[in-house]
Amino acid sequence: MTRRTNLIDLAVGRLRQQITSGAWAVGTRIPAEPSLTELIGVGRNTVREAVQSLVHAGMLERRQGSGTYVISDSELGNAMGRQLAGAHQRDVLEVRRSLEVEAARLAAMRRTDEQIAELRALRDTRSAAYASGELDRMVEADLVLHRTIAQAAHNPVLLALYENLQDAISENIRFNFEHPVHDDDSHHALVEAVAAGDAKAAVEEIDRYLTDLIGDVI
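Structure (tokenized):
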């Protein structure tokens, strides 16, 4: 039984690695069962159980008459997505604050010259989207700017958490634009604090921004 379990775990790990490495991209069909047995070096029953495990995890989907397809490259993202479905906006904002305050602090300490230029360009893109009044553009531009600050923190664990929360964060950003609190929403001071390497100012800017939003959400 132990050896059987170990073989299944091995097969699941090999299949998962094919997905997370990008060898099997989201939206693509994975190889047929005979090819998988050859790839992993285990029997068909083990392959079937491994595939089924990743179906349950939300990474694969069986389509009748078509095959099995990659639908996600993250088990964590699926689990968090299910957990956060219908979450209260205040709860999402509080989690955002815990992540984005630290991201801003680290970004101010670790950002590269290229990232400074990118953040300033994204800030301008965000301002243009805000001026247009087009909600979808505003949400996308804001999300990209905050994600890039998280990338500039150069902490892969923080970035993974942030990226796996992106659906909930995107919904929260949309809610915030639909229920505005701030008159000045340019993020100019935040970006310039990160660019200047002023961790204290960067933390104060994002903390003030999100705390004001939390205070307005009931």
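The beta strands are 60-63, 67-70. The chain has eleven helices and two strands.
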